């Protein structure tokens, strides 16, 4: 592929990680997933890579980049639209409604308390008598119930978790696990003395923009490297058309974990629940991308998300965050296809730790204790991890 991007472009987006951009895959029923597959196939039937692009074997061709980008974006759109119409978004659970035991202990007494409160108001808010007493009693029951579930939160959560396991209700089980995980996540309302989403987002945008563009280079050196690669390609008689098969895609997808997101609208489950037709279209896309040495903009973009480095230090300081990049799910698939097919021909230097087996991850942990690697370039075609 041609290297045409020397500047990392970091743009702010306050909306990422918004739960509503996600699809409720974790609670999808088998009927909904079947509907997703059917809708996906129907939509994909109209999405095709023009034959002049698919059949093009010119490695220096730049005429088909637009049709490759469109094909890529259309496939993503088919996946996201089918999932949205067949499965939908997660139901937002906020505030007291998210507390374990709310429906069982609080909801009924709250309804009763509200009923008597309304009746008491309609009768001119009397300060004594049966209505006054009923309102007072039901309100007290309601407040007691809220206090009870607050006090017993952990026990009620554990009980709910145990019931979902004993009933083999895995969706409920994972919902509870997710709630526990989310409830422990600290969220800072102020970072470096700024407190609006836009300001906080800008702090991190500026920080990562400076960081990712901090390595200086000589642009004439880069041009020389590019020219050398292109010359090698031109004179390499062994270079041939590279074909990515449906089986390659299927194998790569089988290694994906569920519930992974690119931070915007792609989720690993869109592919895990994909159909043979989707895998065939993806194989055509990757084949065209590789043989044209071109990747669409949306394929190359990732979402940088700041996560707290040390939970014992202040979460209000931007220096206590590291950025993790959530990259394109299709990018992960292409990484895996290349690793599956060419790992024997690839080598990496000693500062790379990703994709090198467990031994090297242990090495990374050890070295990180001593603050040794300042930047670790992970495999990838487009993934970075920094301290
Ligand atoms: Zn072409």
Global Rg: 27 Å
Low-confidence stretches: 1-6, 16-20, 93-97, 358-387
The proportion of residues in beta strands is 5-15%
Q: Count the helices. How many? A: 15
Helix-strand string = HHHHHHHHHHHHHEEHHEE
Q: What ligand molecules are bound, each kind once? A: zinc ion
How many DSSP-defined strands? 4
- Characterize the largest beta sheet: strand count, sense, and whether it forms a barrel: 2 strands, antiparallel
Q: What is the rounded distance between the termini? A: 28 Å
What number is the mean pLDDT? 78
Spatial order of strands in the largest sheet = 1-2
Structural class, by secondary structure, is mainly alpha
Roughly how much helix do the residues carry, as a percent range? Answer: 40-55%
Shape: elongated
What would you say this structure looks like, in words?
This protein has a domain at 347-387. 53% of the residues lie in helices and 5% in strands. It has 15 helices and four strands. Helix 3 packs antiparallel against helix 12 (276-292), helix 4 runs antiparallel to helix 5 and helix 10 (246-254) packs across helix 14. The longest helix has 22 residues, at 65-86. The chain is elongated. The protein binds zinc ion. Residues 53, 56, 58, 61, 63-64, 292 line the site of zinc ion. Zinc ion binds at residues 53, 56, 58, 61, 63-64, 292. It comes from Capitella teleta (Polychaete worm). This is Reverse transcriptase domain-containing protein.
């Amino acid at each position: 592929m041609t290297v045409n991007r020397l500047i990392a472009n970091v743009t702010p987006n306050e909306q990422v990680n918004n739960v509503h951009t996600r699809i409720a895959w974790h609670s999808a029923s088998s009927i909904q997933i079947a509907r997703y597959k059917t809708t996906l196939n129907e939509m994909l039937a109209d999405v095709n890579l023009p034959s002049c692009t698919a059949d093009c074997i010119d490695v220096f061709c730049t005429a088909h980049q637009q049709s490759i980008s469109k094909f890529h974006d259309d496939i993503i759109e088919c996946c996201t639209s089918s999932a949205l119409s067949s499965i939908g978004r997660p139901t937002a659970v906020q505030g007291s409604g998210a507390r374990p035991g709310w429906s069982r202990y609080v909801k009924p007494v709250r309804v009763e308390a509200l009923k008597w409160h309304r009746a008491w108001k309609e009768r001119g808010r009397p300060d004594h008598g049966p209505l006054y007493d009923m309102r007072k009693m039901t309100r007290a029951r309601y407040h007691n119930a809220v206090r009870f579930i607050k006090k017993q939160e952990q026990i009620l959560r554990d009980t709910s978790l145990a019931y979902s396991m004993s009933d083999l209700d895995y969706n409920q089980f994972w919902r509870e696990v997710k709630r526990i995980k989310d409830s422990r996540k600290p969220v800072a309302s102020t970072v470096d003395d700024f407190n609006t989403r836009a300001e906080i987002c800008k702090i991190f945008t500026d920080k990562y923009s400076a960081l990712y563009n901090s390595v200086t280079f000589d642009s004439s050196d880069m041009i020389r490297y590019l020219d050398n690669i292109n010359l090698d390609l031109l004179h390499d008689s062994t270079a041939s058309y590279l074909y990515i098969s449906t089986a390659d895609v299927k194998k790569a997808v089988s290694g994906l974990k569920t519930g992974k997101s690119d931070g915007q609208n792609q989720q690993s489950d869109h592919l895990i629940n994909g159909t043979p037709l989707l895998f065939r279209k993806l194989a055509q896309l990757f084949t065209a991308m590789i043989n044209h040495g071109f990747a669409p903009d949306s394929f190359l973009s990732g979402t940088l998300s700041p996560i707290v480095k040390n939970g014992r230090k202040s979460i209000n300081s931007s220096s206590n965050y590291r950025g993790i990049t959530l990259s394109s799910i299709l990018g992960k698939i292409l990484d895996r296809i290349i690793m599956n097919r060419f790992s024997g021909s690839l080598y990496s230097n000693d500062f790379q730790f990703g994709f090198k087996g467990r031994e090297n991850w242990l090495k990374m942990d050890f070295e990180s204790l001593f603050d040794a690697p300042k930047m670790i370039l992970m495999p990838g075609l487009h993934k970075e991890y920094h301290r």
